[in-house]
Amino acid sequence: MTEFMGVRDAVRWVSMRGIEPIVTELVEYLEQDFRRWGEFDKAPRVAKYTPLGAIELMPTCDAEFYAFKYVNGHPSNPARGFQTVVAFGVLANVHNGYPVFMAEMTLLTALRTAATSAMAAGALARPDSRVLALIGAGSQSEFQALAMRAIVGIDTVMIYDRDQDAAEKCARNLKPMGLHVTVASSAAEACAHADIVTTCTADKSVSAVLTDNDVRPGVHINAIGGDCPGKTELDPAILDRGPVFVEFPPQTRIEGEIQAKPADFPVTELWKVLSGLAPGRTDPDQVTIFDSVGFAIEDFSVLRYARDQARGTDYARPIDLIAEPEDPKDLFGLIHVLSPVK
Length: 342
Ligand code: NAD
What we know:
Structural class: alpha/beta
Strand content: 15-25%
Bound molecules: nicotinamide-adenine-dinucleotide
CATH architecture of the largest domain: 3-Layer(aba) Sandwich
Radius of gyration: 21 Å
Helix content: 25-40%
CATH class of the largest domain: Alpha Beta
CATH superfamily of the largest domain: NAD(P)-binding Rossmann-like Domain
Shape: globular
CATH topology of the largest domain: Rossmann fold
Number of helices: 11
Number of domains: 2
Largest sheet: 8 strands, parallel
Number of strands: 17
Order of helices and strands: EHHEEEEEHEHEHEHEEEEHEHEHEHEH
């Protein structure tokens, strides 16, 4: 039987465990998988772009498991009463192709994206980083802030969103968590004393949410909201200032901030830094940029982790997803049993 973790189960699990303990463990799973990058089958995700957004399938596999995620990105959705990003996904056994775990992945995506940002910042930001600027205060924002505290140790969050209500929502959610939180009136103000800047805005446009002047020396940037053709967040001049780190170059060159740059623009793959095969930050005054678009291996890691967490608990339950006739050649026999001829 396939085990299923639905939204109610995921909400109970995250509420009981807490976001920061989960992110801390999830980063261990992510690091394990990034360090064995060569074992995975990799391809850019399969995307359907429409005027209102993107619908994407994100597959990958190793020798044991195959995983895919269905995810959308519709920046105009909140104005119409829907979320920008929703998702679900599946983990299957490679040896027989049977799905073993299926999960809601709207929450799991927020957790894995936050954990990936924090893992990148842990490797690339200055170790004394304490102040995070969050540009964009929607669904991903609180997860990003808490992951950055869990992994990097930030204690202060400066929030800017062009929607004041969203910024105040984020501040309201984060203040009880013990962070020093301030709502800024511009991206420049939010970044004025920031050690790490995370841009997590949603707009189907080539934007300069962050201008070159907003970025002071020594800052680490996680740019997570520029993740599809024609949807970017950074002034391209910022990319010239520092080393740019990416997940999977063939996908990032299509979807990431570097789509604004020539096809041979130099990038470093994050897995190489995490494996000790490439340098990360080499100077405290350097600007480091993680041009994140979200890659299938991150979803593989979070599905693997959630399955391990749910095993032997009531956070997942068997679902009747795959027809399993006793005789594997007699699928028809199932129907015959249910509908005997009169
Ligand atoms: P959301 O719609 O809930 O929130 C986005 C926020 O950005 C909104 O509050 C909006 O007002 C704000 N915003 C838009 N343009 C802005 C601007 N110019 N300046 C300041 N604020 C601005 O979306 P979300 O679910 O939080 O996702 C944020 C972004 O992250 C989306 O673009 C999404 O596609 C992307 N994303 C990336 C990954 C990844 O792995 N890289 C994963 C998940 C989501």
